[in-house]
Amino acid sequence: MSAITPIVMPKWGLSMKEGTVNEWLVEEGTEITVGMPILDVETDKIANAVEAPDAGLLRRKVAAAGDTLRVKALLGVLAPAEVSDADIDAYVSSYETPPDEEGAGDEAASAYHFIDVDGIRVRYATRGGDDASRPAVLFIHGFGGDLDNWLFNLDALAEKNRVFALDLPAHGQSTPKLPGATLADLAAFVAKFMDAAKIDRAHLVGHSMGGGIAVQMAVDQPERVESVSLISPAGFGDEVNNAYTEGFVKAESRRELKPVVELLFANPELVSRQMLDDLLKYKRLDGVSDALSSLNGGLFAGGKQSAQPGSKLAATGKPVLVIWGGKDQIIPAAHAKHAPEGATVRVFDDAGHMSQMEKANEVNALLKEHVAKGA
């Protein structure tokens, strides 16, 4: 049965244990190509399409819509036409879901960690082991986000790199206290996090506000930065949609928050009830609302970005990758034209502000290529 290739429930993020099949997007008999969306799955974090990791003929849908299955459970079967139905039946009946060995062996490095940086307790995650000879890649999320914004990306980059992702101050599970409310303040803090985590130099991957922080780091501390990858970054133009930034700060209920969070995605159906509940739980922590309000005032007051470090990026000489969603409703995709000369620029016409989630397969390929070239 070596010609049979299983399609299994993916593991998205560090905490995913199971997923629910919403619907299949392809029919049995379809020739599947790598990266093709084949079925929609919902987790406690997000609903998204499973993209095929392997190519082949879809011979059998094993999981049905509504099934809730463990990570690595069998969803379907790819096999050439010459493989008999009996062989496929035997494969399906004998398939055993492997254990999710989180916390064992190499997987131990995938757990959440906490570290003190200037009196702020920072949550972060690591992937890819601790071999210092491997390049380091540091992911920096955006306003109101956390390290789980990278749940589709960390493992892909960890194949050949040491990967780190942190919750910025006043975000996720880090202390709700700011080191300051400017990109320069936040960039200096991230550099101190690198010191504490013993990261000498890193390829920076920044989203939205995190993109602005990454650019500011390249400008202020170029010796710490190998390359810069930016997804819908701040810092390349004046405009920012304060219906999102101010709306996020002010929302106090699921009803108020839902239309705000939907602005992030080209497809608002990606916003799950659990995602909203998690965000509300975070926003209700003591100190979070005040910190977010200060940060919004410092960076995006009146719907205008206060800092434009992107104009100084070319002078750093760093390799630059810029990714944008053509349907971005937070920071206009037109800002991509301000990328430095020589930068690799990719705009996805059918993505919004969260390309790393909406176009994960394509974004991961771009990130891996960019980091490899800059190593």
UniProtKB/TrEMBL annotation:
CDD domains: lipoyl_domain. Coiled coil: none annotated. InterPro entries: 2-oxoA_DH_lipoyl-BS, AB_hydrolase_1, AB_hydrolase_fold, AB_hydrolase_sf, Biotin_lipoyl, Single_hybrid_motif. One of its GO terms (biological process) is acylglycerol catabolic process. One of its GO terms (cellular component) is membrane. Residues 4-79 form the Lipoyl-binding domain. PROSITE patterns: BIOTINYL_LIPOYL (PS50968), LIPOYL (PS00189). It comes from the Bacteria. GO terms for molecular function: monoacylglycerol lipase activity. Its cofactor is (R)-lipoate. Keywords: Lipoyl. Pfam families: Abhydrolase_1 (PF00561), Biotin_lipoyl (PF00364). The keyword Metal-binding does not apply. This is Branched-chain alpha-keto acid dehydrogenase subunit E2.
